[in-house]
Design a protein that fits this description.
Blueprint: H1 2-17, H2 31-54, E1 60-64, E2 90-96, E3 101-106, E4 114-117, H3 119-135, E5 148-151, E6 157-160, H4 168-185, E7 189-193, E8 199-200, E9 203-204, H5 206-219, E10 225-229, E11 247-251, H6 256-266, H7 271-282, E12 291-293, H8 298-316
Parallel strand pairs: 6-10, 6-11, 7-10, 11-12
Antiparallel strand pairs: 1-2, 1-5, 2-3, 3-4, 8-9
């Protein structure tokens, strides 16, 4: 009896040690196939999330402070859908895909939706570059600036010129142009007066400007175009250090005879002060302004601005098929 039991036990142990021969059970783990499977799985997931994000509202907007070439980033969820950007471009962020990736697009006409590296992802890449530089004996003493600055979802429109805001001719031109644009663009534009950039004791009141910035940012959440009346802002330099990123439109009158006729027509007395403001604004570099209007009359200036705002509206309100 005992011998029979030992024989059965021995037979069981031999059978247990034999390799499994059931059909469909792999004997060797194939790492390359597993990697390919995971890669395809995550790519399908990325495409699915991308399609979902197209139907989502804009979460927030950023201005880029660095360059990024998505074609070189192998860690992207979907390399062919990775968005590259240059410094000083604007991006709409629609969704968070992971700690390293957002889903969004350039604020441009017919810009496609794709994967954008988060600030954390950019930080990892910069760290890798620093480590590589250290390995090669190249050290950097500069701290990296933030790769993005959060800005309003639509950039407010600020008119400056032909003279400073305190001048009568400037007030008349700005009021007339805002009224015409409101008529032409309808509910797509909103007018708002702000104290942003106000100076106190010769310096910008940053506390007041931060409060105004929060208000303007809230107004832009529905992607309306804000015609911002900012009487304390005479040049783009007046908003240095404030993360508003407005579209600066300069109304420029370079011809002195035309300017004098306008002043005489509107009954302006202190022409010398007006001309000083005109000369100062006209001496600023043209690249400080996004749009320069040099048209001769209000109808022409309105037509030019309407065309610009129509393009900007299309860039900020793409259709599902466009992205």
């Amino acid at each position: 009896m005992h011998s029979l039991f030992r024989e059965q036990l021995q037979s069981f142990l031999y059978a247990y040690k034999e390799p499994m021969k059931e059909r469909g059970v792999p004997l060797i783990f194939d790492a390359s196939k597993e990697h390919q499977y995971r890669k395809e799985f995550f790519k399908e997931d990325a495409w699915e999330k991308l399609e979902i994000a197209k139907k989502m509202k804009v979460g927030f907007a950023v201005k880029t402070n660095t360059d990024y070439d998505g074609a070189l980033d192998r860690e992207s969820p979907c390399r062919e859908k990775t968005i590259s950007f240059k410094k000083n471009q604007f991006l709409h962020i629609h969704a968070r895909y992971s700690v390293d990736w957002w889903i969004g697009r350039h604020v441009e006409k017919k810009a496609k939706m794709g994967f954008i590296p988060t600030a954390k992802r950019i930080g990892k890449l910069e760290k890798c570059l620093d480590e590589e530089g250290t390995r090669l004996g190249q050290s950097s003493i500069w701290e990296c600036s933030p790769p993005f600055t959060v800005v309003p979802s639509t950039r407010p429109i600020i008119f400056v010129g032909p003279a400073f805001h305190g001048s009568q001719i400037t007030q008349l031109m700005h009021t007339a142009l805002r009224s015409e644009l409101t008529k032409r663009m309808g509910e797509r534009v909103r007018k708002f007066k702000s104290d942003i950039g106000r100076k106190w004791m010769g310096r910008i009141d940053y506390e007041e400007s931060e409060r105004e910035l929060k208000t303007i940012t809230a107004l832009c959440e529905d992607l309306s175009i804000i015609l911002l009346e900012a009487p304390h802002v005479n040049t783009p330099l007046d908003l240095t250090g404030i993360h508003l990123a407005p579209i600066f439109v300069q109304i420029r009158v370079s011809n002195r005879s035309i300017l004098m006729r306008l002043m005489n027509k509107t009954g302006i007395q202190n022409k010398k002060t007006e001309l000083c403001g005109v000369d100062l604004l006209n001496s600023l570099p043209r690249d400080l302004f996004d749009v320069i209007i040099e048209e001769k009359g209000l109808p022409e200036a309105t037509k030019r601005m309407c065309s610009f705002l129509e393009d900007y509206w299309t860039a900020t309100h793409p259709t599902y098929e466009d992205i």
